[in-house]
Fold each of these.
Amino acid sequence: MNTLPKWVEYGLLPAVNLAVAFLVAGLVVLMIGENPLEAVRLIVYGAFGYGEGIGFTLYYATNFIFTGLAVAVAFHASQFNIGGEGQAYVGGLGAGLVCLALDRYLSWWTILPFAMLGGALFGCVWGAIPGWLQARRGAHVVITTIMFNYIAASMMSYLIVNHLKVQGDASVQSRTFEADARLPHLEGLMGLFGQDIGGAPLNIMFLIALVAAVLVWVLIWRTKLGYEIRVFGANPDAARYAGISATRIIVTVMALSGALAGLMALNPVMGEQNRIFLDIPGGAGFVGIAVALMGRAHPVGIVLAALLFGVLYQGGAELAFDMPKISRDMVVLIQGLAILFAGALEYMFRPAMVRIFARKKGGAAWT
Amino acid sequence: MDLSLFHDLLQVLDATLRISAPLLLAALAGVFSERAGIFDIGLEGKLLVSAFAAAAVAAVTGSVWLGLGSGILASVALALVHGFACITHRGNQIVSGVAINFIASGITALLGQAWFSQGGRTPQLTGSARFEDITLPFAEAIAAVPVIGPIYADVLSGHKLLVYVAFLAAPLTWWVLYRTRFGMRLRAVGENPAAVDTAGISVAWMRYRAVICTGILCGLAGAYLSTAQNAGFIREMSAGKGYIALAAMIFAKWRPIPTMFACLLFGLLDALAIRYQGFEFPLIGTIPSQATAVLPYVLTVILLAGFIGRAVAPKAGGVPYVKER
């Protein structure tokens, strides 16, 4: 394949793909009979116009950073983990159980490490099983992770309804954690920037998500394991000749992927709802797919793409409020279009780009 | 024989046929696509757009046939998007399938709310905007015959047209795939596209025709959900049926007739779960509804893992074809 200048490959091409996705979404808005530019204005205002909006935008972005990283880690070993939703859901159980067990004895900063361990461990197991089935039994990881999403949903609803639910309470959820198992919100930090986030549940998990992004970068590009993962992803046969065990790589990336997805659950479980509830991830596991594709599986790209989807989620809520004809499902549509154009159709505009940029610079000079 | 138990059994079997029909149509849709080497995890999305288009058009025009046609058109359109991405642009088939499911989920809810303002529902369908039950010939005449009569009159008779279409589609799919030139080529494109290419047949055009077949069958399945089984569209009404159909197809190892039995099995599980909800069984007590709901998925994972037989996908599945020069 012809090489393109880096800024075209990693900047212009994804931007063009994304622009086309938004263009199609804009046409749908026109079809509904609303003004797309007005819609964009409302979204941007909803997401950035006031402190609480910013708080919510970053809160949603936190979820998507974790799930985006989860999908990306597996991508590097050319494994497609569609099971982030299920892994995050089960991770929520792990983290929630820790909270339910410890919230009457310890304070938040001692509970947090255990909760992270619980969430990561449960998610890790839920990801590693399909990984193992792929590596040792040849069961396609895409299909098994889809199945595991449904299995997780049924299992969680059984556990919550039959075991965790408070007897005599109408709502289907566990008891609310004591104040000590709730993560501190970032009012103070945001205050430094002169923003009052009000009731937004932006919490310390946002900072942990950024740390996780850095750690994933270190892992993939600065460690031996990361190198092996990338070699395996680029060419499994070559990796095997080099003595890299396929089973070890596949199970490891799926376990890591599951653990990252599992960590995501801490954000809603301990940062917002403070209980174990139905549908903990709320679709964030799936958004992770779009985020990882748009971010080209690089942590910097993922943080930016997660921020964009945070904007869409928060701004979309605002939009639905001001333009009742456009419901929040607009975001799901944009998510689908982004996956289509940035993922499945990523090569559509490539030949044109090659024609423009490769000729100008004499082609092979860019490597 | 205990008469009430016999009556229960008939009811469960009747429900099984009703529940299996859309699964079967969608699973056969999957067979066409995957046998031609195009993985399709977007069955769910196609079901959903078809269900929406069928209900929306039927509601506005009052004609279930126009609804059915629109459902099929919508589903074929999405199938062609999948084809455009995977065949023409050699995109990742899984990614494209995921995209299609989200697009379908988003656009149906969005347009449903924008056009009908009922929280994403379409108006209730009545009269000619819905498929009617069909009474098979002589059903009343032989209903009185013991055993056979009730089976014919209560289980086999009295379904919507699309149920019969679904169960005819299974042998028809078998015939097309295994007894026609089109079918042989379709399967060849899924196993060894280079050989088909060498024979002077266009791999891309073959695969496009396969995804169009997929679109048509998914269209029928979706229209069944909203204009036959239910009286209108509800948000997310496909509720994972596309994935269960996918599971059934894999469970049946991509073969049409076994696919029918897999769908009947999954339909039976569902029918039993509905009939015996909260029922106290001796020794085991009540079976939680979640346990039966999850069974198709668990069975598929076990099968895929090779613990009961081996599921071997078409060889060229998921691989875009690059013509040699």
Amino acid sequence: MPKDLAANPILSRWVTVHPDGGVDVRVGKVELGQGILTALAQIAADELGVELERVRMRPANTASGPDEGLTSGSMSIMHSGGAVRVACAQVRARFTAEAARRWDVGAARVTVRRGLLECGERVTSYGALAGAVDLDVPADPLAPFTHGGKAVAVGTSAPRLDLPDKIAGRPRFIHDLRLPGQWFGRVVRPPSPGAALRHVDEGRLAGMDVLLVRDGSFVGVTGADEAEVSRAAEVLRAAASWDEHDTLPDEDGLRDFLRSGPHETLPVLTPPLDGSGPDGSEAPDGSEVPAGGAARPVARGLRASYGRPFLAHASMAPSCGVARWNDDGTLSVWSHSQGINGLRNAIGLALGLDADRIEVEHAEGAGCYGHNAADDAAFDAVLLARAVPGRPVHVQWSRRDELAWSPFGSAMSVEVAAEVSESGAVLTWDYDVWSQGHTSRPGFAGVPGLLAAGHLERPWPQPPAVDPPPAAGSGTVRNAVPIYDFPRRRVTGHRLLRAPLRSSALRALGAFMNVFAIESFMDELALSAGADPLEYRLAHLGDARGRRVLTAAADASGWGAPMPEGSGRGIGFARYKDKGAYCAVVAEVEAEQEIRVPRLTIAVDVGLVVNPDGVRNQIEGGATQAASWTLKERVRFDRRRVTSDDWESYPILRFSETPEISVILVEAPGLPSVGAGEAAQGPTAAAIANALAAALDIRLRDLPLTPDSIIATINATP
Amino acid sequence: MTRAFELTVNGEPVRVEADPDATLLHVLRNVLDLKGTRFGCGLGLCGACFVRMDGNVVPSCDVPMWSAAGRTVVTVEGLSAGGGLHRVQRALLDEQAAQCGFCISGIIMSAATLLDADPAPGERAVIEALDRNLCRCGVQRRVVRAIVNAGAAEETP
């Protein structure tokens, strides 16, 4: 039985059939703009044997729906899809059994199609049987896995269920939520990460129709009118004085900062000490030594170091949360969190409240690319609402706080060295990666992990971010193991045990940097061997699906055809998390005054495709965002404050800078579906860097790739 | 201190009580209950709150009510007479040109205003018209394709 169903076995948690034939499906995964609820509805429709239009996906809720943990890591289609498939197949079997009982026929003679159950001339429907079939029963682990019928909705590009509202401009986002008696709230955050509130000149709020809420260094206002509350927050900002300290690293010395320690060492691949044998026993892909590989003598070695800065989520909407303390002592929360159950538990922990007394319902926010400030905003609402029991309080962050106080994706540094044979074949691979941790989600390391919890009069500690365990895909060392068949590899991660800038999960976590570094270095090795970068990769790659994807991207991109002066083509490739989607990207770069990426050609293999256009949209979006990270983005700070706090100081890719993208879906219908949301991140960065090297014969190893860094690299070359 | 302001919103004359410094965006969302216009940055830099005012696309987060008085404002809800969808919206749906959809209202306002001036714009004109709109999910190319299609559909009825 799929693990999410085993953990939530009661079928009525997942499915409710109404007398009108409509079907409510509840999942623990949430819509983040990625279209997951549409894909899961397609699976549900097919397994139930109803039209897609009859399926209504309900918002995830801690009280009424299944707990499926986080919506992250490109795992939803695999985990929730598997659970929905089996749960719906079992619901269908129970309805079939009821129809068969009524007609006194064998269940195998009952067919289900378009919401109707039929046996010869006899016809009934889901709606007609709804009252007679009990779904308050656990899923049967021995029941058939799936009805095995022909896919109707699965495999089609069903339009997204949520887009009609969003494109018509109807209220749909948590920002639009208005509950009876609702007030608004704003928090005035400290000016810098190490700051403590010294004094508030409360008199300056006199005459304003708001309530001041203060608890230690947490300070905010709440009131009935949003405009008044916003104005009061600005007055409060000016009325607050803070003790500040220099706590941040040198933004131009991140490599030294990351490598200076103390660290937790994360050994990923450790070859035997005697230097004789391969490390194949520990390679997750089970690769073996190429014939004669170990025997070839080392001809030369290459070494390089790569880096990336801190990156911001930079969602289009500021984070938002709503909370209400109810008269019976319970707490209701609305949040665009990726993990409503984790948020519930963290709020309970922070306030010493039994989690059973807290209900969190998901409400859609803007695009979410990891652990952003959604949970923090929800907790802000909880703290402000505590001052006005019975009243919902709706808290919206400012753009400035969204860019400066959401957790960041950590800066990272990589050192990689290889020894190659006379022909250029890799004989040894030696890889180190340094980073702050990649998760500080609610509940991590035994603390609430909610921003304001660290600012209270009795503050919770704010330990440095940790890394997800290997079973959840790791963090710093995600995708640190190259997919290629190298005879001898050593891969070690180093998680920094300090986090002066709060870091957490950002789309692909460490995989973005590791793939950028590995695939850049593969290019450097290819060029030093005088080999074509595509051929060089294929010569080291036994994995058949990987070879197919690489070749598909190259073929579609016109790989090998000549490019004009100042232009170049580059390739990047990875299998996300070593077991997810395969993705190869070919980038074209024009480097003149600016660095432009006119075109990306991408091939992807996600196993069985549930919604082809959904996969394309995720790959296009991921690649566009990765191009933005690669070309433009860098969190800026001085030794005290984060200074990149608007769209001018933290620019992202604009329409005029966005590459044209073509996506080739390399079909693998017999294989399990895996997620697409993060597969393109690393390969895109590497492809762009490699294309830039092809265009200018200059290798940039630190992101972002900017005209300034080209000039600096030229000046630094003797 | 609030004051009464009169303006035209989506073809209807409206009279609202508001602080003169309150933004047009606040009044649209909280007083007139038109939530299709979104708050993205409050600094006029992202385009999520774009509306049409006297024919020009402006960030409504950056328009104080004292300067909106007497103006004619069109929001995403009022683009199409009769409450149907504007052809830009239909084209966006056809292309599934959105992910989270938070930026899309502002994009629709920029695109619809472009089509008023240039009924069948080419790709370059569309990109230029949308360059003040930010999108973080990465649907830019789909949006451009949709808007070009919306124009082409008008040309060949």
Amino acid sequence: MMLHNELKGALPALLTAALIATAPAHTEAQVREESHGVVLLRGLPTLETAHSIAIVELDPEQANFGELLSEVEQPEMTHPLHHLYYSPAGRLYATGLDPVCSLAEIGLERDATGAPQVTGFDCLDTQGQMVGEDIMWHSSNGKEYMFVTFMGGLGGDDGGTLGVFDPQSNAVVKVIEARPSQVGADQPYIMYPHGISAFQDRMIITSTVHPDLATGVGNALTVIDLNSLEPIQNIVVENEKPLGFPSSPVEVLFARPTMNENIKPAVLVNTMFGFETWKVPYDEASKTFGSPEVLYSGVANNTAVPLEFYGTETELFISHALPGVVKRYDLSKLPELVSTGPDIQAEAGAHHMIFFKSKSGRDLIAIQNNLLNLGNAADNDPTDVDFIAAVNAHTITVHDLATGERLGTVNFREKYNKGVDNLEGLFGSGFVHHH
Amino acid sequence: MADQRWIAAVAAAVTIGGGAFFTVRALPPDPTPVAGFSAPFVFGRFSVPQDNPLTEEAFALGRRLFYDPVLSGSNDRSCATCHIQRLAFTDGLPKAAGLDAEDLDFSSMSLVNLLWGQERFFWDGRALGLEQQALLPIQNPREMAQDLEGLVSELNGSRQYRRMFRQAYGDVSSENIARALATFMRMLISADSKYDRFLRGEAKLSEQEELGRKLFMAHPDTKASLRGGNCIDCHSQFLTSGFRDGLDGFSNNGLDRDADLPAGLMAVTGNPAHKGFFKVPTLRNIAVTAPYMHDGRLRTLEDVMDHYNDGVVVSDTLSPLILEADNAASPPGSFVGLRLTDNEKAAIIAFLRTLTDETFLSDDRFSNPFEGEK
């Protein structure tokens, strides 16, 4: 009887041994929901749709490719939420264009089957700071904070602030403001800040454009001393003016050895209206910045409106809204831009992106193609601003990461009567480097 | 003739009654999905077998079975004998006690947040799912020594169990015993420790706990002057359990030299590269689950930190993540260990204590239902 029991007890283990095998990585990727994106959708006034936060399936190999798995609308907001960011603690935040909600925390939960749900969002008190853009978590004097650029700041023609928040309570710790009209000539200023990146005790923010896109345009970086939380230097990055405007530096990446040990620290910055990518060398020892130089000219290469920096473990990707391409470079060669292959042909407005594996294990890149949260005058959309309408494809295109081949397209305007303004992975950001 | 009519009437009644009886018996159960289910999003995706969804009835049945000694052959041991709630469902012993008065091979594993993380169970990964896991200790002659057919027969003798099985699944069967126990274990979710409240923005860690958290999350890098406890290389950021992918959730953490290295996962896979691999356990409630390691050889958290600091034993299958983790620069191979300071070790332990979830440890939903019936 005992022997019988022992044999019975051993059978499952033997079966287990016979069946055991390492699950393929693509299966695990599906388990991790890597192909689910969180998107911010913009209601289009002429199509009578409301802004919303949604979860979308982005694996073209899945039968429900392009379907919204969960959606929460924001009918009370005139302007939609703008950019999504995960905190190091896994909390999901969004900046916002509407003054009633310039910064929000988004609720996510799972039901008893494990399905993800967007539960809503809480607008946070920004103490009057408006038009939230980018968020970065970094430390100052050994303590971690959430830094947020507010392109509208506290208002005015030359406004803009860098908000410093407690990452636990979301309370404002400090509003860093230094308007050109207030600080005086030749003093470091902050104006229309958008991009943000940091290395050690130096943070870089960009001076982009007044939120009304008409009052003023910037052409400089602002260096913030993270010891004092004060601006200490401006660096002008401007050369060609293909549109006749100032260069409008937008996104910035402080290339640093923590990304790859071969990287010599330097600031990379894209100029939205200058169409260029710049490099500003940084000397760690003296904490000084070298002379800016143009690494890439859109005028010379027939591209325009360079926007975002995203990195995998091995490559850096830069999106160019026109003609809608993503260029790729060797991460280990930064701050120089050494190409690793042909451009990925996305669509007009190529902007944010995530990386994941398909069901069959293919490495994919999903690119959100939409420059700004603005519509098209041809649709009688009152939010149209000249050329910007031409760079809003309202799509997410999904490509094979190795070859760039397009495997699928989700046209949010056709499918949902909405624009798509931002894209982030559902669980984890979907990229390794961004700011 | 009259007798024939009577017989026909009785036969009809029996037929109708029997038909009704079988009709009732044949009705599929309509269990209630668990109400108010809540789990931190950061724990990640989970999946529940389609034929065993989380329901109130299955949970109630599984809880009762978990605490019922009828599951053992001698009717004196339940799952809860070795999995005690206030000890995060461990038993406080180096190794669980066998029926033969000898120690079993391994310590009793904590049962917490089993919806996530590595999907193979037991220290050596011999069970591929919770349903499979649930029946093995019951049948093991040194643990509960129960014959499943006999158990089904015993449970069928109980009106209450017949009703509970009918409501949850239908019949009393070994498959449904496994499903119910698996459901109870899946519902053992610990998500209200100080660390959870910190992640939700509801609590602040002390300076020491915060230092410990940072060390926990960092792999040391002397080139970048980054000090680290290297914990996250094996224990994930939020769950603090082993990783789910493939066999990533198993590791040789340097307890024994090659000559003494137990088989571990190799006993299941047959692969010599897995010799000495054991499941990376969750660190949730780790402060109440002493002693530590698969065989309970380390008595305190201080002993555990000392092991990783300067007590690692090198063997052929030692985790490379441990082999290369050192906070002091030295030639490769000259020393294996973290070489943290006493303050840093204390900080990591302080952080580990923030993983204690008092709500979980005293949650009535997970307690012994028989105590409420006394």
